[in-house]
Design brief:
Elements (H helix, E strand, L loop, with lengths): L1 E6 L4 E8 L3 E9 L1 H5 L6 H23 L8 E7 L3 H18 L3 E5 H7 L12 E6 L4 E8 L2 E7 L5 H11 L7 H8 L22 H12 L5 H30 L3 E5 L6 H14 L2 E3 L11 H13 L18
Parallel strand pairs: 1-4, 4-5, 6-9, 9-10
Antiparallel strand pairs: 1-2, 2-3, 6-7, 7-8
Helix pairs in contact: 2-3, 4-10, 5-7, 5-8, 6-8, 8-9
Bound molecules: 5'-O-[(R)-(carboxyoxy)(hydroxy)phosphoryl]adenosine and zinc ion.
5'-O-[(R)-(carboxyoxy)(hydroxy)phosphoryl]adenosine binds next to helix 5 and helix 6.
Amino acid sequence: MIILGIETSCDETGLCIYDSKKGIIINEIYSQAKIHSIYGGVVPNIASKNHTKKIIPLIKKIIKKSLIKINNIQLIAYTYGPGLSSSLIIGTSFALTLSYLYKKPCIPINHLEAHILSIMLSKKKPNFPFISLIVSGAHTNLVITKNFNKYKTIGQTLDDSAGETLDKIANLIELKYPGGEKIYKLSKKGKYKFNFPKPILKNNFNFSFSGLKTHIYNFIKKKKITKQFKCDIAYSLQETIIDILIYKSFKASKKYKIKNICIVGGVSSNIRLRKKIKKMAKKKKINIFFPPKKLCTDNAAMIAYTGYIKYITKKKIKKNLKIKINPNLTI
Ligand code: KG4
Ligand code: ZN
């Protein structure tokens, strides 16, 4: 089966052609990160304008490169939430228009479910059940993935997400949006100099990062910002966030007796997080899984793959062309 995946939930315009036998045929992303970096974050109307501008050139590009005609596509899968409504609407209308013109089935996909299933696009795949830690710019969720279509959220952030915290503090030390990877690069020259508070919320699996963010805001305000200071802030912040993520994931593994932990979403491409959790998991005999780095941040391959899974497991493909976006969709 050949599936077209469409992703426009935030500021990345993504298109992918996925073949259920051969895997990813082509996966292209147009990132607007540079455009939004001057504003310190994503500006919704600028994001939607750029999705509109880029989506047609992008489909032309993937068709030209893959030599697969739209008529040979058998299923169209698109993100319908969560995300920015003005961005979601572009991918949704594009998908429904293609579906109408080419008479192809069309399926709305939950972006969070797609992040969870992005793990199935890596070489080393977990067996069910597994714990999914979604760490992205918009989410920090702990989910028990019992099987395809069977998810149970056991914890989520009560305020800011891990990625958002990295982005906001990065902004404060003059790093451009998105800041996660830039924090990692700076941290390599830094030390664990500042013992920031670790909001653990001991009795549940929820997260809270806004207290940490405010603490660092106030701390930085009083200091002279030197190059070394920035590196030490980067190291200390990264380590604090990583420790919280690891603590909660291992706690969930212990409570639910599930030995497979999958870490997905933009922050999961962080090399320090990968190394630290793998090292600690070895001692506890826990298996850690990550998607390939290119599939951690937003992409259309995970949307196409999730569309395929929905098609083969549920077979309930919506034939109507009703616009159905949900910016606040959960899992
Ligand atoms: O999954 P994603 O592309 O978008 C959402 O669904 O939100 O995640 C974007 C987030 C941003 O906060 C970005 O700073 C963070 O992922 N990120 C990183 C790294 N690469 C991206 N955080 C830490 N280390 C990285 N290498
Ligand atoms: Zn995402």
